[in-house]
Amino acid sequence: MSNKLISHPDKPLIKHLSEVAKIASIILKVKKLNFSINFYDKTIDLASVVPDLMYLSASFHDLGKATSFFQAYICNPEAEHDKRKNHALISALFVYFITGKYLEKIEFDTTLKQLLSVFVYSAVKRHHGKLDNLSNEIILEPELQELLREQVNSIDTGQITEIIEELLNDYKIDFAWTDFVDFIKNASYDEVFDDFSFDILDADYKELDSKTRIFLFYIHQLIYSALLYADKNDVILKDSNTLIEQSDVVEKIDYFRDKNNFNNPKTEINKLKNKAFFESSRYLEQVFEKNKHIYSVTLPTGLGKTITAFMLADKMRKLAGFENSKIIVNIPFTSIIDQNFEVYADILNTYDTDVLLKHHHLAEPIYKTNENTADYYESKFLIETWQSDIVVTTFVQLLETILSCDKTKLMKFVHLANSIILLDEIQTIPYELWETIRETFKILGEKFNIYFILISATQPLIFTPNEDIFELVPDYKKYFHFFNRTKLNINANKISFEDFKTTLTEYIIENPNKDVLVIVNTKNAARETFEFICDEIDTGNIETYFLTTLITPYERKEIINNRIKKDSTKQKVIISTQLVEAGVDISVNTVFRQIAPLDSIIQAAGRANRYNEKHEIAEVFVFDIEEIRKISGKIYGSDLLLKTANVLKDFEVVEEKDYIQLIEKYFVEVRKQSDQTSNKLLTAIKKLNFGQVDFELIENRKSESVFIQLNTYAKKIWEKYLEIYNNKNLTSWERKAKFSEIKSVFYDFVINVPIPWNETAINFDSEKINNFYVSNLENPSRFYSYSKNNFKINTGYNSEIETICL
Fold first, then answer.
1. What is the Cα–Cα distance from 736 to 743, expressed in whole angstroms?
2. Which of 61, 133, 130, 144 has its CA nearest to residue 95?
3. Whole-number Å distance between alpha carbons of 320 and 308
4. Model-level pTM?
5. C-alpha–C-alpha distance, residues 490 and 355, integer Å
6. Which residues lie below 8 Å from residue 674, measured CB to CB, with a gap of 6+?
7. What are the tens digits of pLDDT across the range 65-92?
8. Using CB atoms within 10 A of its CB, is residue 694 exposed (0-12), middle (13-18) or buried (19+)?
9. Are 73 and 85 in contact (CB under 8 A)?
10. What was the pLDDT predicted at 1?
11. Pick from 508, 500, 578: nearest CA to 543
12. What is d(CA 276, CA 304) in angstroms, rounded to the nearest whole number?
């Protein structure tokens, strides 16, 4: 009888509900989690309760589809329907009701029971929507109450009872459908929710300690995530198998090292790489404890942190006893992701996505294994839920999963449990987020058995060493003391921009055998410096390159990979912004760096004499440029610039072997600043204000996108884009699927230009086409300078003057 009710075209409701429940249950069965919670000084173990709550929410998340209104809709969606076809709210109220019945027989605090009941209600209510503050979720307007009565009256008692009894077959819950009907008709939930709001949210809940409140937030997110994932899985994949085979990464690294003769180093730097690799491998076995969840790898630039940390992650998951564990590598910039991904693919000897997955907004959106290639919809789901042994992704992807309530990101939250998470270049995390990361990572580590490894040459003081975080490189400071590849020359006096450009020009002329990297804090300053050098110096024997986001990714890749990295008899001069600081594998003789936060200066120094291959110590000149000082404060924060100046004020020259002392002193000051910073995000988490948990790593400034037809290939890509989006026979989803096939190469030719303050658009000489301004190949925009062969001209977008395109 019950099979007459359907959830989707040609799919019985009971089948969908049972499959979603099965998938949600399997996820937790293979995970090792710690659901022990300290609640008003009593320790309560929720190890059996949370999986049951997950099962109940998954089993009945779509029960509201049993209404006659939804059944009429699903059988004839083109007809006119009203709000009575909606199913999430009545399903949520049923899950709340049945959860209350389930918890009646369990002995623990009534407040905790109420919280957990409202958690499953919230998860089901918003499985098709956006989470709101918990205090708002329990407010139901009178018109909704009447709608709920109509819905419950339309449900066939016999059919719904059969479904419920089948799904509750393993649960001894005293329940009758008529009780729930009365619960809805009498709006009994209204009084219950009022009491919850006043007695618990506004009173009892506030008395809980900070750690418990954060843990409760993540219990909610776990239930919500498992429901989202299981529901989508059943619709898209129809597959309850969530197990991914673990690779033996250590074994593959050993083979990779042998193949590349890493075990027979010839240079001092390679000998040090080996020393760091093997010492950290041995030390991990000494320092690792299952109840310690946060570790660090601190090594100077060029000492092989990428491979060493990869090896440590695999050893760690074996020491932890995990059998269904992911290694999730997080990197701040997509350019470094692409670079490191190739290293991992070489080590693993595969591009199969179930083994190695690259996930960022420009990555190939196709999920391929050695057996088959998934279609667009399957690929999108598998990639966005990280169905792979090794995941290489961005900080944004990870932190949006942990620190936001975006349901498209939260689908993968449940898969973080038992994972090893590497955060490379961790110093790029703004100090304003330190407290949030510290408090949430500690809970996620302890309760969800996640292990974090923070990687940097300039390790920030987010966590307290030897208390919250444990270093995996024994006596790591000796590696910094060994090197003397660079030295900082600090010009404590302010210098005018004109004098800076003149000093730089003179240095270039006087040192024709030295490649020079110049890093200033704004794109406009970089362009002015570049143009000044090109005007003042006979560049016949000099290769000059301009590197900022004002030029396309296509040009930047060409300059870095095929120009800067290639040997040349000519002097190379590179003018850039902080774009080149972290992870860009270039090595020059000299760096000119405008004053910036100290960790940025040290990262800039890492672009000089990187492999100790130069014949003398590389100089890093640090200047405080007067005209750009104010805007530098807006970019980095004037407080960080002041702390940097205070740390450097007693020095004229600092050698690399002493950088570590400066960095440690600097981050002590930054930690003080962080501890004094108000934290709206962490406050929202503690208050269960889900609607306000809105993580943002980079402040979004309004911008316009410009497609640059640099060559015939770019023109063909643009034409393909127009063909896709002008095809009226395609649905919007089909357009997205088609565009995904060219997306990564398409954006190689796109720049995003910030809209000037107090303006509504950028300067451009044509109208937008499908949301893009376009510089055509045959008739280039006068606002974009480009030449295939003359790099003196390549300064990209400039809104103020007419430019050149040859």
1. 9
2. 61
3. 18
4. 0.94
5. 47
6. 431, 432, 434, 435
7. 999 999 999 999 999 999 999 999 999 9
8. middle
9. yes
10. 44
11. 508
12. 8
